[in-house]
Amino acid sequence: YMAMLLLLQTGMMGTFVALDMFLFYVFWEVMLLPMYFLIGIWGGPRKEYAAIKFFLYTLVGSVLMLLAIIAIYYSSHAAPLADGTLSNGHTFNLLALAQQGREGVFASAAPILGFAFTKIIFVALFIGFAIKIPMFPFHTWLPDAHVEAPTPVSVILAGILLKMGPYGILRFNYPLLPDATAWAAYAMAAFGVINIIYAAFVCLAQTDLKKLIAYSSVSHMGFTLLGMASMTQAGISGAVFNMFSHGIISPMLFLIAGVIYDRAHHREIARFGGLATAMPEYSALTGLAFFASLGLPGMCGFISEFLVLTGAFPTFLLFTIISAAGAIVTAAYYLWAIHRAFLGKLNPLYQGYPDLVWRERVVLYPLGAIAIVLGFYPYAILDAINKTLFGLIAGIPRL
After folding, report:
1. CB atoms within 10 A of CB 111
2. Suppose 206 and one of 65, 123, 212, 273 were both cysteines; which one would form an S-S bond, judging by CB atoms 3.0 to 4.6 Å apart?
């Protein structure tokens, strides 16, 4: 189990730091196998189904991505190597490929196809990354994977793995294919809005706490898609900040679900009741995480959503209004979950349940503190990312 966790972390770290297109793909695939085994061996009752579904969805995206990478490689020009010499005809160097993308190399690589060539490459890469986000309609693997995965695996899946999709779009699609990115912006924004609204309403119908949190991840990643599609400084900053804030809040929520599952051995929201009486500290931290996730001012979730909506407003007025309305639905399903599980009369079955122990406090309190600190001082993250992001969108045609 621990070996698989370490191998999974190796694949994820390699994916984020690789500046070679081939290495990126290798690490992307390395990450797939340990997650498959972590869910399939140590998961819940339907672990085999969830693991196979996760594997197949990701594999389909990986095949499309591989074809696009091969096409990009053979369309590229020679690039300088570390020793000053030129590569042999083509290159996998992402920095050199980004420069060639801004110069229009790939747009003119297939004269017969013309602009359609970069559109095809964009769509192939985008689908591979969209499955990881996950974007509607490629999202159905995520709730099953989350529900069946052990709590630590759910934390890694929500906190880091989902961010590989938006990162790949920003690393590949934006700098390599700027014209195709501008062409696809409205579709990206539309799918982002579908994610936000559709998943929020699905959350209202959930009876399992972990599945509710899983669908809330689908909804919140829609804000990242909308922000990226806006091509504005505020929108793209909000999109990346949303990736970070979601990487703090969502793991906290899954840890909270794991805490109550360890005691009650179920996660049915309606079977609880009055938990705030028996477990006040746990209930307070749950409320903190819920409010951070629904975008309460003073929490990091509010900053990310506000930046996304501010950035998207000049470009996608109608989409922005609809997405803002989604925040009302988000508040509704979180407050309804609090009402059913924590308020009212205590269910006698849960009388005497122990509150948080030290190992649970060690992981939950730092996450809660980060969510609050970034809500008041977001520039701790924004200052580190804005220069790179603004340079990224500089070469993309304005919408």
Report:
1. 7
2. 212
Reduce the DSSP state of residue 169 to 3 states and report it. helix
Q: Which residues contact 326 (CB under 8 A, 6 or more apart)?
A: 193, 196, 197, 200, 219, 222
In 256-282, which positions are buried (b, 16+ CB within 10 angstroms) versus exposed (e)?
Answer: bbbbbeeebeebebeebbbbbbbbeeb
Nearest Cα residue to 38 out of 66, 16, 9: 9
Residue 41 tokens read as 């061996």
pLDDT of residue 81: 59
Where does the pLDDT of residue 395 fall: very low under 50, low under 70, confident under 90, or very high at 90 and above? Answer: low
The dihedral through the CA atoms of 347, 350, 354, 359 has a sign that is: negative
Q: Tokens at residue 259, please?
A: 């805490």
Cβ-proximal residues to 359 (8 Å cutoff; 6+ apart), any chain:
none
d(CA 178, CA 107): 9
Q: What whole-number distance in Å separates Cα of residue 251 and Cα of residue 182? A: 33
Task: Please give the C-alpha separations between residue 309 and each of 225, 271, 305, 319, in angstroms, as whole numbers.
Answer: 11, 37, 6, 9
pLDDT score at 113? 60
pLDDT tens-digit readout, 212-237: 999 999 999 999 999 999 888 888 99
First-last CA distance in the chain: 48
What pTM was estimated for this model as a whole? 0.89
Alpha carbon distance 318, 309 (integer Å): 11
Under a CB-based contact definition with an 8 Å cutoff, are residues 135 and 85 in contact?
Answer: no
292 contacts 374 by C-beta, under 8 angstroms: no
Residue that has been written with the tokens 């819940």 in this structure: 44
DSSP structure string for 353-379: -----HHHHHHHHHHHHHHHHHHH-TH
Q: What percent of the chain has pLDDT above 70? A: 93
Are the beta carbons of 79 and 93 closer than 8 angstroms? yes
Query: For 87-121, what is each residue's pLDDT tens digit?
Result: 567 888 888 888 888 887 777 766 556 568 888 89
Residues 6+ away with beta carbon under 8 Å from 355: 278, 279, 280, 281, 282
Report, in angstroms and rounded to the nearest whole number, the Rg of the chain calculated over CA atoms.
22
